[in-house]
Fold:
Amino acid sequence: MMLVDAEVTIPGNGVHLQADIGVPVDARGIVVFAHGSGSSRKSPRNREVAAALQRAQFATLLLDLLTLDEERVDELTRQMRFDIPFLADRLAAATVWVQQESSLSTLPIGYFGASTGAAAALIAGAQRGDDVRAIVSRGGRPDLAGQALDMVRAPTLLIVGGDDETVLELNRDALAKLRCVKSLEIVPHATHLFEEPGAMAQVIDLATAWFIQHLVHPAHR
Structure:
């Protein structure tokens, strides 16, 4: 049963961002999603993860990091989708919005980032410090977070497909630079989008377990 399942508008740095929020009864945390380049909050893979997290009593916020006008420009230039600090600022603004909403303000906050969105999640997590309790990256590009990797304090899980060889090496390098509680999980035989049978189910299981372990207060597990 859903307490809230709606579209919301989030103010951020002079613009208004569109997002879909789902809040189950007795939610024990909220996970903010940052999608990858060329995607949107309607990504079927992220929505599949969000639905599973809601069943596990996590609220979810699927966020478009660009406005519709910005998306039109980006379709031609492809510049904003790779401006990771810019996207991280938008994610941080959404985090502030969550903290200021009376119905959400008591929920611990986690990030779920995909592809380039994972780099934005890591930078925003470093910026927000203790405001962010856990981070999960799916097929992410944590290398694009640069020096922010050293400053991430939230427990961070990197999930990569075993056949996504280039991204796997980038994640191994990033893992060595992270100083927080961290883990790298490899989904065997999966490629970058985890389209193989059973691959997304493994992503969901890993992400859910990570958020239960690191986002939920022990008394509520």
The radius of gyration is 16 Å. The helical segments are 44-55, 68-77, 84-100, 116-128, 165-177, 199-214.
